[in-house]
Amino acid sequence: MDITTITIFILAVFVGFEIITKVPPTLHTPLMSGSNAISGIAIIGAILATNIDGDIGMWLGFIAVIFAMINVVGGFMVTDRMLKMFKRK
Amino acid sequence: MIDLSYLISAICFIYGLKMLSHPKTARNGNIIASLGMLIAIIATVYLGTELDIKMIAIAMIIGSIIGAFFAIKVEMTQMPQLVAIFNGFGGGASALVATSEFLKYGHNSTMFLIISITLSVLIGTLTFTGSFIAFGKLQGLISTKPITFPGQQLLNGILAIIMLIAAYMIPNYGMDSFYTILILSGLLGILLVIPIGGADMPVVISLLNSYSGIAAAMTGFVLVNSEPSAGNALIICGSLVGASGMILTQIMCKGMNRSLVNVIFGAVGGEVEGSSGEGKEVNIKSYSTEEAAMIFDAAEKIIIVPGYGLAVAQAQHAVREVAEFLEDKGKQVLYAIHPVAGRMPGHMNVLLAEANISYEQLKDLDEINPEFEDCDVAVVLGANDVVNPAARSDQSSPIYGMPILNVDKARTVIINKRTMNTGFAGVQNELFGYDNSIMVFGDAKDMLIQLLSDLKEL
């Protein structure tokens, strides 16, 4: 453990607060499903976990990849479907 | 090289989220964010060593098919359920990754690793189970009323303490301690969501959204030793999502004038349900759609107030047809959107956007409230608590202090409800008895279709 990791964490939280505060209420649902898809970044951890020796760890990684992929693909697709509808007359 | 790829994807996510702040750029923002994810995945697979590519590909295809199926099939009214369940999968994935890391290191882990694994498993698993309960409630599979029992909070407290002890014992008991944490986290997720009622769902979904991000960030801390680049990527993206969920949670709480603690432990709506009928008698005037049509015909400025009832009735297209008819006759039509209308943040906006209503006509609370003063007709469609004047005046009301839409300031208020049942908070709405209030009973969609044909006959 080192302080760099914590620094990255704290700065990222600040960046998050900074960008999201500006999102108007109209877009709150797409924001939520879109940011939800981003939390599917766990997929890279899941991919690496499939490499772990021993059956159980590997299969956990396999299931984790499925879960994260549902989150990523479903999240981005449904967000796009919603945003397509937001039009101005 | 892998660091550079993750840096690029992090920039894509931040820039994409930034572009989400305007309807015009939002769609491209989402595409940029998804490209960021694609870069991260390709880099991980391509640059990773000793990976079983075939196995990963199979898992990714299965996940993609399931995700795409849901994303294409879901109705806009079911969006809260969908987001809830996706949150759950995100949290679940984080918990699984942390678990497999634990299997690798076992009880030889350092203190830092034990803390991050415990937090990651705890938050990830409770997001997983909690989201499924939220899904069940929103889908109507589980009662939307708060489910409470005596000693519930004490039980939650005890569970938390046992988990703390179990985490402390990991160096001695290894797997047994770990399984204890895993199982209790799952149980805690269920226990935390079942006492929360339907109308508080916007808060819960925002909170679970935040948790799914925090879980990913914690998993990043777990990975940071063995895979520093991947660990940092998870920390950055996870905390972005965690922060965004937190902000939405705050906005939702403010929209109900309740603290987060009160929403989670308050269980509003449970005990008052039975006594609601005895409250103040209100004398209501019930009108037919024909009579309502005449009021619309004489009006110049109309404000539509959609609520969850509109979503249930799938009446968004019917609303637009009525509004278009009125606009063609030279009338002004606006929509008033309360922050907690519906079952998730922005739920009503998505529904109305689906029906092709311009987002510029949708006004939030602060924008629209002054407009009611010179408004001829305010139409309340399936909303109740968010227009209850008791929130302004009656200190004994459970919703006292909640910011409401001041529909009662309009010359005439037309309220469409299916029945005279009370709103979620179990409070009778005195608005219905006001001199300028008119009730039109019926399903929102049927009522609007009937109203449109009556308007055309005038």
Task: Give a description of the structure.
The complex is a heterodimer of chains A (89) and B (458). Chain A has helices at 3-20, 28-38, 42-49, 55-85. Chain A is an all-alpha fold and 89 residues long. Chain A has one domain. The longest helix of chain A is centred in the last third of the chain and has 31 residues, at 55-85. Chain A is flat. The model of chain A has no long low-confidence stretch (mean pLDDT 89). Chain B has 17 helices and 6 strands. With 458 residues, chain B is an alpha/beta fold. Chain B has helices at residues 2-19, 23-47, 53-73, 79-105, 111-139, 152-173, 175-193, 201-223, 228-256, 260-266, 289-298, 308-312, 316-328, 347-354, 365-368, 390-393, 444-457, and strands spanning 301-306, 332-337, 362-364, 377-381, 412-417, 437-441. In chain B, helix 1 runs parallel beside helix 9 (228-256) and helix 5 (111-139) packs antiparallel against helix 8 (201-223). The radius of gyration of chain B is 25 Å and the shape is elongated. The chains are: A mainly alpha (89), B alpha/beta (458).
SSE blueprint:
The complex is a heterodimer of chains A (89) and B (458).
Chain A (H helix, E strand, L loop, with lengths): L2 H18 L7 H11 L3 H8 L5 H31 L4
Helix pairs in contact in A: 2-4, 3-4
Chain B lengths: L1 H18 L3 H25 L5 H21 L5 H27 L5 H29 L12 H22 L1 H19 L7 H23 L4 H29 L3 H7 L22 H10 L2 E6 L1 H5 L3 H13 L3 E6 L9 H8 L7 E3 H4 L8 E5 L8 H4 L18 E6 L19 E5 L2 H14 L1
Parallel strand pairs in B: 1-2, 1-4, 2-3, 4-5, 5-6
Helix pairs in contact in B: 1-2, 1-9, 4-5, 4-8, 5-7, 5-8, 6-7, 8-9, 11-17, 13-17
